[in-house]
Amino acid sequence: MSNSSLPTLPASDRPEVAARLRDALLGAAFTADGLLELLGAPAYAALARSETVPALRATRGDTPLETLVRLFLLQQPVPHARVEDVLPVAECVEGGWLVSVGADEVAATVDVRPYGGPDGEDWFIVSDLGCAVGGAGGIGSREEGVVLGVGGASTTLAGITVRTPVSAALDLGTGSGIQALHAARHATRVTATDVNPRALHITALTLALSGAPAADLREGSLFEPVRDDETYELIVSNPPFVISPGARLTYRDGGMGGDDLCRSLVQEAGERLREGGFAQFLANWQHVEGEDWQDRLRSWVPRGCDAWIVQREVQDVTQYAELWLRDAGDHQGDTAAYEALYDAWLDEFEARKVRAVGFGWITLRRTDSDAPSITVEEWPHPVEQPLGDTVRVHFDRVDYLRAHDDAALLAAHFRLADEVIQEQVGLPGAEDPEHVVLRQHRGMRRATKVDTVGAGFAGVCDGTLSAGRILDAIAQLVGEDPVLLRDRTPAQIRLLVEQGFLEPVG
After folding, report:
1. How confident is the model at residue 178 (pLDDT cuts 50, 70, 90)?
2. Rounded to an integer, what distance in angstroms lies between the CA atom of residue 67 and that of residue 60?
3. Residue 399 and residue 490: Cα distance in Å, rounded?
4. What SS3 class is residue 76?
5. What region does 213 belong to: left with phi over 0, alpha with psi -120 to 50, or beta?
6. Residue 312, Cα to own-chain centre: how many angstroms?
7. Degrees (nearest 5) of the Cα angle 360, 184, 34?
8. Where are the beta strands (DSSP E) in 40-116?
9. What is the pLDDT of residues 196-228, one digit of tens each?
10. Which of 31, 111, 120, 491 is deepest in the core (most CB within 10 A)?
11. Cα 28 versus chain centre, distance
């Protein structure tokens, strides 16, 4: 891989320069909140779409914050004298963050973008110029070694990651370093890898400019840089998961056939996890003619791991090819070349009998159970981020249900989860509803149909009475045999616990 056509990066071994630059940025309110106040919501949102005109219009003044926005976010040369009032220009030029342009102006060598941490931290994400918004129609760059900033996939992975204190975390394919930055909050030691040495350099800049501890940075593909004796309590990866003919773009194309890169990543993660540890990935997978996509993903799960796999979106092969051809800007070039590339994508899919491509989340948890749980589901509906706690509790429920047979469930106590409402669906004026729906307003925001017994049972679960006692009362109320009701209801209770509508008490 060659980065010869990309700009020279700032020195990553000058933490004192990054620290002084950070102080200057914070002093000028160059933060997520500061930008929102200066630009206003429309211009701020436009920046996230790589549209700069509204922000250019909003920064026509000469305040320190406007100067920094034009310099680092809009990549505009700024008069040396204006920048001197805000930044230690000589040190920033010497450290490589700025470069002289013409006789009296300076320009940024990298994009520096404020990013608000989960607890209000003021962080800064470094990326290549013009590459702050990544993926799916973002940058339109054909540079092989370019390093993107934070896109929707990055924030999705950060939001679903389990955030419990760990001694060792691994970020595979670190890119601009956003996952390593999040992990540094709750991991004693963070290792970050990437096949692109430029990405490791930029990750070091992101961590230093954000005031985070340095990570152990290693060059290599997937688990290659990890020693055989190294294991982790948390592994995260937003890998180059795009299924494409060839590997033109390092930041997105895996370079393996079909979805082999994602499959390899998942299968190899199991032996790198410590007991109870989590591995969490974003991935694409093929929908192959004559093959159940859920079975395909179940076959990826390594031995000794529970898994929760959620398909969030499916695109047919034409939509998928168009999406990623636009991402690289191929649609803006020569029409014949674009059509040839499009044809190559469809040839690849046809040869593999691929009819569609799925996108979603894969979470593994190392377990010592003799009967690992593998849940594969489709959930394209809106969810409430962050979901890290929801993911963690999902596996807590897996443990609970694995340890409780039907008799134990009937002896247990439950409470209805917060933010659950009941909806009754039926014709106006009908004596009984056609069906009853329980709906969550937090986390995964699930909805599930229940019968009248299930609805009544959930409604009175406050932790006071055991499930069996509640069912006995319902049986008496509706005139049903309590033994028969106890026999047929545990499956429904199990489903409500599994999906988070009921929470075990004690």
Report:
1. very high
2. 9
3. 17
4. coil
5. beta
6. 12
7. 85
8. 78-79, 98-101, 105-108, 111-116
9. 999 999 999 999 999 999 999 999 999 999 999
10. 111
11. 30
